[in-house]
């Protein structure tokens, strides 16, 4: 296949992508990957700046960037964000924004539960419902949700995170069932153990870190860029016939 042919499959020129949780980690890497493929990017995060690292990475790739500040735990703010975004011709939505609260189940508060579910699940549903509707009207669109290894496993001392990420995978399949025949692809990536701020406590744990790394066939923690490539694939024409799928980016963790 020629380079031009690859461009047709993976190029995103003329597309507009919205990425939540865009300030750092996986979200920042996804913004850069989509920009390198030609998409303009609207980044969403609670503290995102229009002249920060993500903006610089996207613009260095030759794409346009706009920063929108939104606390995904604030239901009214998410509703306002959805109203703002539906006025734009959004082609790609990446629901990456997420949070985690660690505590044994008997100490896990209602506030922690509600906060994590609002950020990880409710915001993804509200934005998918709003932007999915506009995509259906145009007969084209891509939604990529960020699930987790804990969409498949129970985890330790993260009940709200596990519940939310299990639900994200179910939501992905439910939306795909309704929208696949109408031109809107809904899929998910499930990152394994990736070196981000969320996993910093695990990487600093002298017992759990080597135990986790030893179980990963690839022998290392993932990097945000490892996940970004999978998101780019699902956002591109190369994934035209991929619906309701979850792509594990885990160094072989699930195969172990």
Outline the structure in words.
This protein is of the alpha/beta class and 256 residues long. The chain has a single domain, classed as Rossmann fold, CATH 3.40.50. 44% of the residues lie in helices and 15% in strands. It has helices spanning 3-10, 25-36, 53-60, 75-85, 110-138, 159-179, 200-203, 208-215, 224-235; strands at 16-20, 40-45, 65-69, 92-95, 141-146, 184-191, 246-249. It has a 7-stranded parallel β-sheet with strand order 3-2-1-4-5-6-7, sandwiched between helices. β2 (40-45), α3 and β3 form a beta-alpha-beta unit. α2 (25-36) runs parallel beside α3 (53-60) and α2 (25-36) packs across α9 (224-235).
Features:
alpha/beta, 7-stranded parallel sheet, Rossmann fold, 256 residues
* Count of domain modules: 1
CATH class designation: Alpha Beta
The CATH architecture designation is 3-Layer(aba) Sandwich
As a whole number of angstroms, the C-alpha radius of gyration is: 17 Å
Class inferred from helices and paired strands? alpha/beta
Spatially, the strands of the biggest sheet line up as 3-2-1-4-5-6-7
Number of strands: 7
Q: Major sheet: size, sense and barrel closure?
A: 7 strands, parallel
What is the number of helical segments per DSSP (H or I, 4+ residues)?
Answer: 9
Mean pLDDT: 96
CATH topology name, in short, is Rossmann fold
The amount of helix comes to 40-55%
Q: Unreliable stretches, pLDDT < 50, 5 or more residues?
A: none
Which strand-content bin applies to the residues? 5-15%
Amino- and carboxy-terminal Cα gap: 34 Å
Looking at CATH, the homologous superfamily is NAD(P)-binding Rossmann-like Domain
Shape: globular
